[in-house]
Amino acid sequence: MERAEVTGRIMEAKRKLGLKWIDIASVIDRSEAWTATALLGQGTLTNEESAKVGDLLGLDPEAVAALTVIPYRGTTVPMPPTDPLIYRFYEILLVYGPAIKDLIHEKFGDGIMSAIDYEMDIQRVEDPKGDRVVVTLNGKFLPYKKW
């Protein structure tokens, strides 16, 4: 079974059951951001995690098994992205990317921020001028190796 089909089933079950990502995450003891990423087809669950998600969402065994398959990451969104919210992040990197890169190099040296040893958090902060979206990207610094 293709991951896109499994994702569709997950989203349908999530909607029908009135669940939030945090509800599903609590069942497998993971963060809501990681859980959403994995169940939207960009991560891999263990057999135990996929069984728990399957039980919660009423997924069939074939869909449960598909959640344990290593996905082709980064293939679900066209480039440039067309969804307005995803495009804003693309735009942020187009505009602020060079500054982010230079600041990281200035503070850490020549290297990159890992997207493997990585955590993400999204919070809502109330503000009288309009609520704020706080996105925290937390990746390990990986210096370039010289040999």
UniProtKB/TrEMBL annotation:
Protein's UniProt keywords contain Lyase: yes
Known function: Catalyzes the reaction of cyanate with bicarbonate to produce ammonia and carbon dioxide.
Lineage: Bacteria, Bacillati, Bacillota, Bacilli, Bacillales
Catalytic activity annotation: cyanate + hydrogencarbonate + 3 H(+) = NH4(+) + 2 CO2
Protein name as catalogued: Cyanate hydratase
Keyword Transferase among record annotations: no
GO molecular function: cyanate hydratase activity; DNA binding
Record-linked Gene3D superfamilies: Cyanate lyase, C-terminal domain, lambda repressor-like DNA-binding domains
